[in-house]
């Protein structure tokens, strides 16, 4: 005998996240098989729980369509697939090291738990997992996922790899082990929305999101003010004098005639959280002092270009040899602004396009795109 509490089947709807009540099969002491409803399909959440004789795994393996599932407390469940954490389900998910799900549904959903819940079982998650959604919790941080090294987002469609929303006490992720996003740059979408007003990302977290050029729906986050990192790399605030020996610099970095002679202090800097402006310098010839700079990223979205090279006297070579990713966030508009310098920075279209390709970001040179520059004279293919 079934207990079917709600049955809402939007057969003609192809919108998986359209709100719907869902479908529940629960607390049936004698139910052992679901083979009679093999053909039933719903995009709504299926909750199947506390049916002590039911072998849900057999049903799952029999080729049912990909559905959003919340399965626990049956004779056989589906292990670490589509893990749905709430106070009732928590005891069933103590041993997962890897969580998976079909492409369009979340691998891990966490809701209604708070800091009094024992989430220590999730510390075992250490390899790649799919999309994560955390909402409606009373958690202050998600550091029970601190051993996570790789997040894997669906590649066939842009989905929120991570959707952290409506957690009124949440101020941090606490994901400092995170190193890698899969499958590729530009293919993951993040949404951080309606959490605690002080919610912040650490330099490590922002660095990883920027390196993989994630897209985002909303990014309601500040940068955490921490000056230490678990990897021991030094973090400094850009202030009244150029700080020395800092791999990570927080601030709107401006190099100009007053401090161009101290630029050697930036030789170990790999990351800037803010923006970089080189302007009005008198003696600077090249940007060799930024030879280790890899990334510029900010959470102050919507301001000026993150990389500006303006009105310098002798500067001619603007190569940033280690910078291989675009400043974050990438808006698709002109991001690198090179304007009003006394020397010719790009002699022809090829030089400009080469620079643009290395930094994976469009250049605006003296008000125009690279295409407006003259084609190089002499032999050689024009690269576009
Ligand atoms: C199943 O039993 C649990 C525990 O008694 C109860 O909280 C839940 O509401 C029941 N579910 C349904 C759909 O009857
Ligand atoms: C479960 O099966 C037992 C034994 O066949 C029967 O006595 C009992 O009434 C059944 N329970 C329900 C809820 O059908
Ligand atoms: C987790 O693993 C322990 C030790 O192997 C085992 O005793 C326990 O039943 C497992 N818990 C779950 C929910 O699988
Ligand atoms: C991401 O999440 C937000 C908020 O839940 C939602 O509105 C948006 O459609 C999602 N975007 C994608 C690409 O899934
Ligand atoms: C996360 O929150 C817990 C309290 O629930 C706290 O003990 C811990 O220090 C916090 N971790 C981080 C990284 O903020
Ligand atoms: C560099 O000089 C400019 C102009 O005087 C000033 O605004 C900026 O704060 C200085 N920065 C550092 C770190 O010296
Ligand atoms: C850069 O790092 C090297 C090696 O740690 C160190 O010897 C050097 O003093 C650093 N230079 C600056 C300018 O911080
Ligand atoms: C420009 O500077 C980079 C490093 O700062 C250097 O490797 C390169 O040779 C320079 N190019 C020219 C044409 O001088």
From TrEMBL:
<dbReference type="InterPro" id="IPR036941">
    <property type="entry name" value="Rcpt_L-dom_sf"/>
</dbReference>
<dbReference type="Pfam" id="PF01030">
    <property type="entry name" value="Recep_L_domain"/>
</dbReference>
<protein>
    <submittedName>
        <fullName>Recep_L_domain domain-containing protein</fullName>
    </submittedName>
</protein>
<dbReference type="InterPro" id="IPR000494">
    <property type="entry name" value="Rcpt_L-dom"/>
</dbReference>
<feature type="domain" description="Receptor L-domain">
    <location>
        <begin position="96"/>
        <end position="207"/>
    </location>
</feature>
<keyword id="KW-0732">Signal</keyword>
<dbReference type="InterPro" id="IPR053079">
    <property type="entry name" value="SPS2_domain"/>
</dbReference>
<feature type="signal peptide">
    <location>
        <begin position="1"/>
        <end position="22"/>
    </location>
</feature>
<feature type="domain" description="Receptor L-domain">
    <location>
        <begin position="245"/>
        <end position="325"/>
    </location>
</feature>
């Amino acid at each position: 005998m079934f207990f079917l509490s709600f049955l809402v089947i939007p057969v003609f709807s192809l919108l998986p996240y359209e709100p719907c009540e869902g479908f529940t099969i629960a607390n049936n002491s004698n139910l052992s098989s679901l083979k009679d409803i093999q053909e039933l399909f719903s995009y709504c959440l299926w909750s199947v729980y506390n049916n002590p004789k039911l072998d849900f795994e057999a049903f799952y393996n029999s080729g049912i369509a990909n559905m959003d599932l919340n399965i626990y407390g049956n004779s056989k469940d589906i292990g670490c697939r589509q893990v749905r954490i709430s106070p009732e389900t928590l005891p069933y998910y103590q041993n997962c090291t890897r969580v998976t799900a079909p492409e369009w549904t979340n691998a891990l959903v966490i809701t209604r738990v708070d800091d009094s819940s024992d989430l220590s079982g999730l510390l075992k998650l250490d390899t790649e997992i799919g999309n994560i959604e955390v909402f409606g919790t009373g958690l202050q941080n998600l550091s029970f996922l601190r051993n996570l090294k790789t997040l894997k987002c669906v590649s066939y469609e842009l989905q929120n790899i991570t959707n952290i929303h409506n957690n009124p006490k949440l101020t941090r992720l606490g994901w400092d082990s995170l190193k890698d996003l899969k499958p590729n740059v530009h293919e993951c979408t993040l949404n951080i929305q309606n959490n605690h007003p002080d919610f912040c990302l650490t330099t490590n977290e922002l660095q990883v999101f920027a390196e993989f050029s994630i897209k985002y729906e909303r990014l309601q986050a500040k940068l955490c003010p921490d000056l230490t990192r678990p990897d021991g790399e030094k973090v400094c605030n850009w202030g009244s004098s150029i700080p020395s020996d800092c791999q990570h610099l927080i601030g709107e970095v401006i190099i100009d005639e007053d401090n161009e002679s101290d630029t050697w202090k930036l030789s170990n800097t790999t990351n800037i959280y803010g923006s970089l402006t080189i302007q009005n310098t008198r003696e600077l010839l090249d940007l060799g002092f930024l030879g280790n700079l890899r990334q510029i990223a900010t959470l102050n979205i919507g301001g000026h270009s993150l990389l500006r090279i303006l009105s310098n006297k002798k500067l001619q070579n603007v190569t940033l040899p280690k910078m291989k990713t675009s400043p974050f966030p990438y808006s698709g508009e002109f991001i690198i602004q090179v304007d009003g310098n006394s020397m010719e920075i790009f002699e022809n279209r090829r030089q400009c396009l080469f620079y643009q390709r290395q930094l994976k970001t469009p250049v605006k040179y003296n008000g125009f795109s690279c295409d407006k520059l003259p084609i190089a004279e002499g032999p050689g293919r024009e690269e576009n």
